[in-house]
Design brief:
Helix 8 runs parallel beside helix 9. The protein has four domains: 271 residues, TIM Barrel (Alpha-Beta Barrel), CATH 3.20.20.80; 107 residues, Sandwich (Immunoglobulin-like), CATH 2.60.40; 111 residues, Sandwich (Immunoglobulin-like), CATH 2.60.40; 110 residues, Sandwich (Immunoglobulin-like). It is built from 14 helices and 35 strands. The protein is flat and about 125 Å long. The strands form nine sheets. An eight-stranded mixed β-barrel has the order 2-3-5-6-9-10-12-13, surrounded by five helices. The chain has a four-stranded antiparallel β-sheet with strand order 14-15-19-18, covered by helices on one side. Strand 29 and strand 30 form a beta hairpin. By secondary structure, it is α+β, with helices and mostly antiparallel strands.
Length: 728
């Protein structure tokens, strides 16, 4: 029975778990008589009785017939027979009823579970590793001595998938060895109470995954220490999360014998084997933990327990069937029978069948095949259907139309890709990637996955004959075939010659130092050869009357064009043409047919752009002086110049000298010297100073002029920086 207190997401999880458990039951062996597996020891201690009352001892508890048990009865480990024992006798009244009839013990807890200091002290006090799954280390040692070590060292059940669980009690793990020995999943202790975390968790958790295992985390519950919600949050914060990645097992609640029964640690009385809690209190604690885990991870936790303890401490506890069960039961000899499961379940998902081998820690078996284990971990395969394939016609075009739906059960709210492969009459197979995001309310009504999981697409064909169409759902973790269908297409005739088609998309100016160009973009396609990249001719008419032409090829990818037209190949163009300066330009583009008998070269359109002029260069001729060195005289010219359009560029400075005999010579230099005064004054960047030297060859009057040479081709002219007269 599902609990009505679950949220909507919990109820969905319940349905999923019910399905998984049913699948595990069908996949696993039939359960035989429940008398061949023994529970982990030590057996639970009897609950304390009020003064003057009598109690019936729990299984495995030794009491004196002449005395009444004290509040903290002694606990003895139940010795294991060499063969499987019969089920422990049921006391009268039943343990759960006897326990419920008594008032719960009250414990005054000295430490504060919310105090970081008290939690740290408790972690230290419980010792390295804390409690071990299936009872504390001492209990494990006692239990191991009662088992058939020869059988346990190598024996495993003959069904299912092998796995193991470890904690920091197994400090050295050779994960590759365990994989080679058959282990395919692992659980790692992450936390205990809200005070202990496994210091080896990361290395064990990632180490098991590194060799290919599906792995998960478990939490050892101490229910009388803090609330279920508190410990669930602590667990998730320290490794107990889950994601539908296909290799993360759902989190586990280790709910079993009180490992510290009868002990007072740091002032906290841990109580009896049932933690001094009534069945109702324990059941409420588990539900508090489980509901919190659903809210934090989206999944109910697996419950690890053993039959005697659960039935004794929680009694007949309805409403837990939606939690997967991990049952601990250690047979004394090789068997596929796990024995009876706790009263809240019909079967188990995982059986912990040994604590002494063949694997380190504890040895486990998944009650199903590997595929069901992966499903349990969240790797649900995509599902869907290729519903139909038909031939459609529109004008002169013939197409195949494929419809269907696809859902990734690992992420049912998302639309996933559907890949469609078409094999044409020549045997050539071509793939197409679609998205299954079209409305399919029938799918939602039938399966509850949501309505937006349909696909419906067309693929143009050019030849008559038989076509085979296959579809695949592309999931996050794996892909699923949706099937194949064949269809016969007839009367698919060659298309008559058609004019090319295309589009003139944009015209823009691209200005860089020493270059101004117009860029026209668009696409062009000749339907008679739709896979070919065809020529595009561009003509530029300027305001000065020029009209040069340029030839390009429309060979750039344009997936949008192919998607709309059902074409293949590359059909985009981005043509760059030079211009000489500012002015008005009209740019026209034409698609050039490649048909054997072309019908013409249609215009793709024209655009006009006004290109403005840019500011002239600026600068100053600071000085022109005569200098004589080593018997040679020259004129040293200093100053600065820059182009404000490209202020970071060092531009040329040209110096012209008129000699005394009237001849005129020009000299080219670069204004590339640092002039911090210029940069500071103009708030600019770059190097713009020059110191240039020109030769003096005769005596007389010299005229020296300097010019800043533009970097922008759109500037009207080069600026005169100044002139100086000198006499030599």
């Amino acid at each position: 029975m599902k609990r009505t207190t679950l949220t909507h997401s919990s109820q969905a999880s319940s349905r999923i778990w019910a399905t998984l458990l049913a699948a595990a039951l069908l996949a696993g062996p039939a359960l035989a008589a429940p008398s061949v597996a023994a529970e982990p020891s030590p057996a639970p201690a009897a609950p304390a009785a009020p003064a003057g009352s009598t109690t019936t001892p729990a299984p495995g508890v030794t009491t004196s017939a002449a005395t009444t048990p004290t509040a903290t009865p002694s606990v003895t480990s139940a010795a294991k027979p060499s063969t499987a024992p019969a089920p422990a006798p049921t006391p009268a009244p039943t343990p759960a009823a006897a326990q419920a009839a008594q008032p719960a013990q009250t414990t005054t807890a000295a430490p504060d579970p919310n105090s970081p200091a008290d939690r740290a002290a408790m972690a230290t006090a419980v010792g390295p590793g804390g409690a071990a799954m299936g009872q504390d280390p001492a209990g494990k040692a006692a239990r191991a001595s009662t088992q058939s070590l020869t059988a346990q060292a190598a024996w495993s059940p003959s069904f299912g998938v092998l796995g193991l669980d470890v904690s920091s009690h197994q400090p050295t793990m050779d994960w590759q060895r365990e994989w080679n020995r058959g282990a395919r999943f692992a659980y790692v202790k992450a936390s205990e109470g809200n005070y202990f975390t496994n210091p080896l968790f990361d290395s064990q958790y990632q180490g098991s995954r590194s060799v290919g295992m599906i792995r998960g985390a478990y939490h050892f519950a101490i229910p009388n220490w803090s609330s279920g919600a508190n410990q669930a949050r602590y667990f998730v914060a320290n490794g107990g999360g889950w994601s539908a990645d296909g290799y993360t097992m759902p989190p586990v609640l280790d709910f079993e014998f009180n490992p510290y029964a009868g002990r007072t640690i740091n002032g906290f009385k841990f109580g009896n084997t049932c933690y001094d809690m009534t069945p109702a209190q324990l059941r409420s604690w588990v539900r508090d933990f489980g509901d919190t885990m659903v809210g934090l991870t989206g999944r109910l936790p697996v419950i690890y327990t053993n039959t005697n303890w659960w039935n004794y401490c929680l009694g007949t506890a309805p409403g837990f069937g939606d939690y997967p069960l991990w049952v601990a039961a250690y047979p004394g000899a090789a068997t596929d029978n796990a024995g009876p499961v706790p009263s809240s379940w019909a079967t188990y998902s995982i059986w912990q069948y040994s604590s002494t081998g063949p694997f380190p820690g504890d040895s486990n078996i998944w009650n199903g095949n590997y595929e069901s284990l992966r499903t349990f971990a969240g790797a649900a395969s995509p599902v869907g259907s290729l519903d139909g394939v038909s031939v459609t016609r529109s004008g002169s075009d013939t197409s195949l139309q494929a419809t269907g739906w696809a859902v990734d059960r690992s992420a049912p709210s998302s639309a996933i890709p559907a890949h469609v492969y078409v094999t044409d009459p020549s045997g050539t197979t071509t793939g197409y990637a679609w998205t299954a995001n079209k409305s399919r309310p029938d799918v939602d009504q039938a399966f509850g996955y949501g309505a937006a999981h349909g696909f419906d697409g067309t693929i143009k064909i050019t030849a008559s004959g038989t076509y085979k169409v296959c579809a695949h759902a592309i999931g996050k973790f794996e892909n699923t075939s949706l099937g194949c269908k064949t269809v016969q297409a007839s009367g698919v005739e060659a298309k008559p010659a058609q004019l090319p088609v295309g589009s003139y998309d944009s015209l823009s100016l691209r200005l860089v130092p020493n270059s101004a160009r117009l860029v026209v973009t668009g696409w062009a396609l000749d339907p008679s050869k739709s896979s070919a990249s065809i020529p595009v001719h561009v003509y530029v008419r300027s305001s000065n009357g020029g009209n040069p032409g340029y030839a390009f090829t429309a060979n750039k990818p344009r997936a949008d064009v192919n998607s709309v037209l059902g074409s293949t190949g590359n059909h985009g163009f981005s043509a760059s043409v030079p211009i000489g300066g500012a002015g008005s330009y009209t740019v026209c583009a034409y698609a050039i047919s490649v048909a054997p008998v072309p019908l013409g070269n249609p215009s793709l359109g024209c655009s006009t752009i006004a290109v403005p002029s840019t500011p002239a260069t600026m600068g100053y001729l600071d000085s022109a002086t005569l200098r004589t060195s080593a018997g040679k005289t020259s004129i040293t010219v200093t100053g600065w110049t820059l182009d404000p359009v490209f202020p970071a560029v060092s531009i040329p400075d040209h110096v012209y000298v008129t000699y005394p005999d009237g001849t005129r010579r020009g000299f080219a230099f670069t204004a590339g010297l640092k002039r911090p005064d210029v940069n500071s004054a103009l708030a600019t960047v770059g190097n713009h100073g020059f110191v240039s030297s020109v030769p003096v060859t005769q005596r007389g009057q010299y005229e020296v002029c300097a010019y800043g040479v533009r970097a922008s081709p759109l500037s009207a002219a080069n600026s005169l920086l100044g002139c100086r007269s000198l006499t030599y």
